[in-house]
Each structure stands twice: as C-alpha cells, then as structure tokens.
C-alpha cells in the first residue's frame, strides 16, 4: 500500500530571485567567456551566491579578491568587477596595471554612488546607512575622499553621531536593506538634524522592496517560510527577518535543498517560499522538488508585482549572442 503524503500548500512569491542587476552581472561574465575565452577574472564574488560562483568557475571564470592576483601572462584577460560596486581606487589600479576591465556594478548601486557624490559636491557630509564590511558599502564609501562619509548602522549610531555642521548633511542607503529598519534610522537622524538632505531618489532598490513586500503579504499563517539565499547576502537575510515580523511561525535561510532541517520543521501545512535577489531559480525548483517527495504539494503563486526592468550589458559585449542554454546553469532548462 502506497503511503499517502500529507498535503502542503506552497505560497510561492513572485517576484523572487534574480533582479535585473544580478542577471546583468552574470550575463557579463558568461558573455566575456564566450567572446574572449577562459580565463575571465572576477574581482570578489560576482553576486553573493556560492552556486552561481561555482557555476561560473566551471565555465572558466577565476575569482580573486585583489587585482594583484592576476598573473602577468593573463594581463590581457578581462577582469570583471562585481555587481556590488567597487571603490574608485579599483579601476584606477586596473588602469595602472594596464588591465582590461568590465564593470558589472548594478546600475542602481551606481545611482547611489552618484547621489553620494552629489551630496559632497553641494558641500554636505555624507551619511551612509548600511552594514560595515559589506562590499556595496565599501564601494560607496570609496567613491569619496576619506573622512567624507560616515557609516550609520543603527539607531544608536544615529543618536551618537556628532557632525561638524548639522546643517550640511546628506544621506544615502545601501540598496539591500530592510525598508522598516532604514525608516527607523532615517527618522532618528531627521529628528536630530531637521536640515538633513535626502537623496534625489530612493536608494533601496525596487527588487529589494518588491521581494520584501511579497514576503510580507504571504507570511501570515505560514508554518514555515524558506528564503533561498546565501548567508552573506544582505537582501536575503532581510527577507528572513521580514517573514518573521510579518507572522511566519518559523523562517529560515537555506542555500540548497540539502540544508532543509526536516526533523526541526515538524508538521506543516503551509510553506512560504521566496528567494533573494542573487539566488538562482534552479535552486527554487530543487527545493520545490524536495517538498514534492515528502508532501502532496499545491502551488499557490502569490504575484504582488510585475518587474519589467532590464539592464543591458556594456557595448563591447553586445555583439555576442546570449542563449537560454548559456544561462541554463542558473535558470534551469527552458
């Protein structure tokens, strides 16, 4: 007699997974490999996802932390800068070494860089709301001279910051933060410094906001909420927090189906499922398949926004055809 599987409804968020900036960055590496051949060097993880990094390595990408790691005989090989952005010193270093580089910085991160530089051009000290050590924060702070930017991580930082001129301050934020957490810090700063200047446009990116809103709308009543993403992915970790705050009984971050703690999750009837902006769809499929093996699964697709953003790659790569097969390692078979 075949044992009957317990029923499970999976509330599958849409949008989820890759945003336009992540998709573009991965495409840049894939197209560079097609056009120039291996090796293509990549400074830092192109996006914060081990599966993506290993997939690109298998195609011939070589990941490094510093440009000095590129051997002299490979100086003609392309080097790609990650989607998180880099300090101005990095392209300057590349030019000094006569390296050919491709900058895969997300256009929305570049927009934050421009906002920070605009504040400084207008005579303001820049406050960057973000997490210390995150590559995007390092890149944004590295757009301006040392001492021109102060990092504000918490409301306590906002309370203790003492500016040289309270009337000459402007803020920007890391693109991948929680909307609620950022709002609290901004409110604390504005209460202390009424003349604080906001950026010309919202810093938190559309994809971060959309994924957080989708999780918020689907978390109530979920016995378990799984976020597919890497531990060093800021936007993925924020989604776990959003799910918990919005009413999920338990919320977990997993990189692969193998990490699902089946013994811990107990009896569940409703599962929320989303993915951070650097998590590939092929892993979402893998996790759904893992639940299908144990449950009689019904998919409830929760569509909360439609994303039409498309960031084109740089001109030098536009003569190379990108096929579905080229991206199947992250997107799955078409």
Describe this structure in words.
The protein is of the alpha/beta class. The protein contains twelve helices and twelve strands. The protein has helices at about 20-35, 50-60, 90-95, 105-120, 135-140, 155-160, 180-190, 205-220, 235-245, 260-265, 280-295, 330, and strands at about 5-15, 40-45, 60-65, 80, 100-105, 125-130, 150, 170-175, 225-230, 250-255, 270-275, 295-305. The strands form three sheets. The chain has a five-stranded parallel β-sheet, sandwiched between helices. Strands 3-2-4-5 form a four-stranded parallel β-sheet. The radius of gyration is 21 Å and the shape is flat. The two termini are about 35 Å apart.
Treating each run of at least 4 consecutive H or I residues as one helix, how many helices? 12
Order of helices and strands: EHEHEEHEHEHEHEHHEHEHEHEH
Which residues form runs of ≥5 with pLDDT under 50?
none
How would the global form be characterised?
Answer: flat
Percent of residues in β-strands: 15-25%
Order of adjacent strands in the largest pleated sheet: 10-9-11-1-12
Rg over CA atoms: 21 Å
The class by helix and strand makeup works out as alpha/beta
How helical, in percent, are the residues? Answer: 25-40%
Largest sheet: 5 strands, parallel
Give the N-terminus to C-terminus distance in angstroms: 36 Å
Beta strand count: 12
Instruction: Report the mean per-residue pLDDT as an integer.
Output: 95
Task: Using brief descriptors, characterize the structure shown.
334 residues, alpha/beta, 5-stranded parallel beta sheet, 4-stranded parallel beta sheet, 12 helices, 12 strands, 37% helix, 18% strand
